Amino acid sequence: MQHLKSNNSDIYFGEIGYQKLNTFLSKNPFSIIFVLVDENTHEHCLPYFLSQIETKVTIEIIEIESGEIHKTIETCAGVWNALSELNGDRKSLMINLGGGVITDIGGFIASTFKRGIEFVNVPTTLLSMVDASVGGKTGIDLGNLKNQVGVFNEGEMVIVDSYYLNTLAKDQLFSGYAEILKHALITSNDDWKMVKNIKEKSLEALEDIILRSVTIKNDVVLEDARENGLRKTLNFGHTLGHAIESYCLTHPEKPILLHGEAIGIGMILAGHLSHQLFDFSLDKLKEIKKEVFSLYSKVDFSDEDLDKINQLLIHDKKNSFGNINFVLLSDIGKHILDVSVSNDQITEAFAFYRN
């Protein structure tokens, strides 16, 4: 399969993606094409990408600094100004070539410039291939609070090309594994068996896993585009994972965590909460912990850290009416939405993680 249809977008895999993009460019009279990159994708991905594109339309490159710390309104303002200075108009196209930060912020910038221009996502990291670029969530952070401002907008198409995985450092590749594990855990035991020991998989096997993971997410988005029900399952491990990621982002003595590292911790914690509250199998919980620890180093959290992480939970965008909502599991593939959890239960989950 080389094509998935989402609600308002198409997801293409491999070379067919560039063929479809070139057809799209030839059929639409774009005034100018902007390619948004960071310093890494500018060097390692842009030359290959441009070699695949056939168009006589002027292409302008806009570069932003890499990293979650730059997913801010200040970065947006810089890009909006650049778009204006380069004579961008409502007939412009933006192509977001990069990881989750690029596709998140690029989609948001495109959706708001001139009240909305068309955009295409070309994810270059495993994380953005299986998660950030698919499903129409765009946005930016407010300080250390993740994804507080944004819109739902799927863009025109997504091109998933495993070529770009060759440009990644090992930690960036591994960061994407967490979302793949999550997709399997919320879906079925068969999917979990498929992805276990994921770092030992060949590239060919990984391509099949990527297709399956994107299919899982796309199926969820097709049923619930605006996160009113089923799409909440995609937040398994993210309530505490995002709080941990935000906390480490600004704490001077904590390592800045990649998204996958934080979500890996979050899945262990959510797994333990599932065990406490819904009798999720201890053996399966230990499998999750073993898989996460095979990918990511353990992070030390003090009691003071836990207090501050708990305080950040109140800002989670999934909350409603003042309630902190968790997605938990009674078994692999069997999820429970909007679960309230006590601080004591969270403390016990961290104790399981630390020990």
Automatic annotation (TrEMBL):
Coiled coil: none annotated. Gene3D superfamilies: 3.40.50.1970, Dehydroquinate synthase-like - alpha domain. It comes from the Bacteria. Keywords: Cobalt, Lyase, Metal-binding, NAD, Nucleotide-binding, Zinc. Residues 176-319 form the 3-dehydroquinate synthase C-terminal domain. Residues 62-173 form the 3-dehydroquinate synthase N-terminal domain. This is 3-dehydroquinate synthase. It comes from Spongiivirga citrea. The gene is aroB.
